[in-house]
Write a structure and sequence with these properties.
This protein is mainly β. It has a single domain, classed as monomeric porin ompg (Porin, Beta Barrel), CATH 2.40.160.40. 6% of the residues lie in helices and 65% in strands. It contains one helix and 14 strands, in the order αββββββββββββββ. Strands 1-2-3-5-6-7-8-9-10-11-12-14 form a twelve-stranded antiparallel β-barrel. Strand 10 and strand 11 form a beta hairpin. The radius of gyration is 23 Å and the shape is elongated. The relative contact order is 0.18. About 6% of the residues have low confidence.
Length: 300
Amino acid sequence: MKLLSRITAAAFLVSLLSVRPANAAHRLLITDVLDAKEVELGASLGYAHNSYDRNYTYSSSVTDSLGISSSSTQSFPAKGTGNFVTSGLWLAVGIGGGLQLNASVPYAFEGNRKEDLAYPLYEVRYSKRDGWGDFEFGVKYGLYGNARNSLAVVTGLDVKFETASTRNYGTGTTEVSPFIAASDTVNSKFREYAEYRAIISNHGDNDSHIISIGSEYTFNPTFTVNPGASVSFRTASRTWTAYESFNLNLAAYLQVYRNFYLIPNTHVGINTSTKAKDGNSSIEDLTFYGAGLALYYLYD
């Protein structure tokens, strides 16, 4: 299965280079909408790491010979880490009339979590997942303007289906994600944007409300940078309390040939603390970072 996945990814990358080249252009800003018959192809590879402190709490009660009960609570600290090597394939097609369709699927080459419990347990807990993730399909629609030269507003809806097993890289949930975004072309080199996105999950998983801001600055036709920041408000799930996540990210668009780009990217962030609803554990001081490289081609 892993060999087949790698062959599929390699064939996809070859297809990026074999299509007819066009004039230099990309549609990478959130408010960009493909024109009719335009097609985007992309592939990515990335590494992500997180670390956190976890406290396990155990309560016990004892009744003595006189029938008197007493209880005690013990805490066991743990250090947790996660490491993930993931890839993704995506496709977008312009339908015309300001409408665009998107599809994507991720693949995890490696995804593992480890928790080292300190005194008095001295235990290591380890979990691992890899393989295909859930398929996602979406639609984007331009409500106002043209992001390439003016103020623009777009809206859309993405749906992630439960197509992969949680033993692989599936999340075990279906997620419905409506969004609205706006951008302004300040001049020929500089665009700025803002986006609100909700992610609504089933099976009692937490929902997210994400606010993102960023900009796109073109130094020259072959080099563009895209810094951004976001805050995600995660609602309580069936097992964990609500928390917030703060993220900074940076990407660069490096033109290789005509409409073919390399996109190195990196991100860093922190989460606020959260507690298990059964009262048995909490997670604090979670930090995360990652870096990756994407290939992008616009066929027009």
